[in-house]
Amino acid sequence: MLAQVHSPQPVPVPVGHGASPAASVPIIDIRSTSQSATVAALEDGIRAGVLEGLSRPYNEKVLPGLLLYNEEGLRLFEQITYQPDYYLTGLEIDILSKHAPQIANAIPDGAILLELGAGALRKTALILDALEAQKKAVTYFALDLDRPELVRTLGELDGRYAHVTLAGLWGTYDDGCVWLKQVTNRPRVILWLGSSVGNMTRNEAANFIRAFGDVLSPPDRFIVAVDTRSHNPDDIRSAYNDKAGVTRRFALNALGSINNLFNAKVVDVSCFEYRPYYNEVQGRNEAYYRCLKETHVSIPSEAPILIHEGEHIRFAYSHKYDHIERGLLWSAAKAHAEHEWTTENRDYTLTMLAWSA
To answer: Cα 155 to chain center, whole Å?
Structure first.
């Protein structure tokens, strides 16, 4: 359980803390800004999503993706990124290793660099190292909903930089967008790695990027990583069903977290298996739970919900974008691609977006 939300405070931007090993990285609670979800409201929203999603007809049931990212889920997802089958991390590191100096060139001295859903920072550190090498006084803000994860990951970089300043923002994507509106006296650059854009539907992704674009000024930039359809379909299937079974444990942990969310025995996890499916027509991986035997989901104060043997419950998407689809995405977000960095095979991209006045 996260701590109580505090009263709204003026937007804080930390000054440089230097490279002292004794320095601590500030974590700024922005959940109290307007439109913020308190922890209780966020959990209520997830509970409502579980009830609504499981109340849908046969084989149309869904569960909220936020169930994946409890403390154990974050730990398991970090393990996934180290699996050889999960090619996305390796390709992104390949781009950043080769092009971090160019990316740093595009980030102005004195800028704010805001990373959405920061998680583990081993990829981000490649950009921060390049900024440090250029002696740019950039303030890096890692935005995440999990405060312990912010403390852990930022702590691993504490004392590493003399020019780059580190800070954490504790809140949701929406909180980050509201917070960003209040920071107008410095250049702003948004970083969204991990092809997280693929977790949204294509319309949702366009609306999400456009919402940040509405906040940004013409000199500001948005850097987004996108996986493509160019891979062998079997490689995509393996990425979401690794040989070590980490993704399976990640998925089933989310299902089990429903019991903690309601503080009751709501679902019998043993009645389900993880079943991913790569939809080649739609260009997306679809993650499902398949019911192994008829069971009931028992949400407190609600009628039991029957889940039939063989029924599928969707809980995640991972969309892939070809060149045309990326162009349509930027157009729908009212943005234009200023620069695109790619792997040698052009099967993973990092695009810098800008908006006209």
So the answer is: 20
Q: What is the 3-state secondary structure (H, E, C) of 154-182?
A: HHHHCCCCCCCEEEEEECCHHHHHHHHHC
Task: Report CA-CA distances (Å) from 298 to 87, 106, 173, 291.
Answer: 38, 53, 31, 15
CA–CA gap between residue 46 and residue 63 (Å, rounded): 9
Cβ distance 39 to 1 under 8 Å?
yes
Using CA atoms, how far apart are residues 50 and 44, in angstroms rounded to an integer?
10
Q: What is the pLDDT of residues 150-184, one digit of tens each?
A: 998 999 999 999 999 999 999 889 899 999 999 98
pLDDT per position as a tens digit, 198-246? 999 999 999 999 999 999 999 999 999 999 999 999 999 999 999 999 9
Count of positions (residues) in the chain: 357
Cα distance between residue 353 and residue 214, in whole Å: 13
**In this structure, what DSSP letter does residue 13 have?**
-
| pTM over cut 0.70 | yes
Vertex 136, ends 88 and 96: CA angle to 5°?
15
